[in-house]
Fold this sequence. Notes:
Layout: H1 2-14, H2 20-34, H3 41-48, H4 52-58, H5 62-75, H6 86-101, H7 107-114, H8 119-135, H9 141-164, H10 166-177, H11 186-195, H12 203-231
Helix pairs in contact: 2-3, 2-5, 6-9, 6-12, 7-9, 8-9, 9-10, 9-12, 10-11
Amino acid sequence: MARAEVGARGRGTGRRQMSARRVVDAAERLTADRGLQGWTIRQLAAELDVWPTVIYHHVGDREAVMDAVTERVVGRIPCPDVDTPWRDWFRTVLVEGRRVARCFPGVANRLVRRGPVVASALHFIDRGVEVLRRAGFGADAPAVFSLLLNGGFFLVAWEDENHRDPASYFRVMEVLCSFRGDLARPGLAAMGEYARHALPEELAAFHGPYHDLFVELLLDGAAARLAGRDRG
């Protein structure tokens, strides 16, 4: 009983040493370890040895804390200068964005599903759309920006989910692999041969090149759109 009272007093007095920065630091650590959806306000409070009300006082509710974590993570992604060639600009943002976001599972999904709700993401929109406008995309620039960024980060969110629930993912890959060597269905046979690279023993080396290929295909599509505008 005495021990419980000491713990309660410790949490009650912890508020004086607490700050919004410390709250977000702890939430960031939990996100790296468990994913953005893998912790609660109570668990965050326990990590800091404070009462949940202290979290609300310094940052806000869980949505506010998740926004603060997202702001931090997006802020780590390099945002190239506006004079960077458009393909290089988006390649850097998407490839480096995957590298950063994969360290904090769930952030990519939040960006795709909720949109750019944090200040650091707004900076990317402002610069990225202007890069496309200067490249000649004209009125298409906002739509092209949205498609490129949403596409790239959607794939990161898919990768996060595969790592969160690998059993479901590997079941699909195993089904596809079962068609390897199927001479009657050469398309499925080719897919089965490809899918074997996504099995557990090769998964770590699979997702990076897969994402890079996806990014290049997105950029090729945008380039084709730009070429069509030039011809028109």
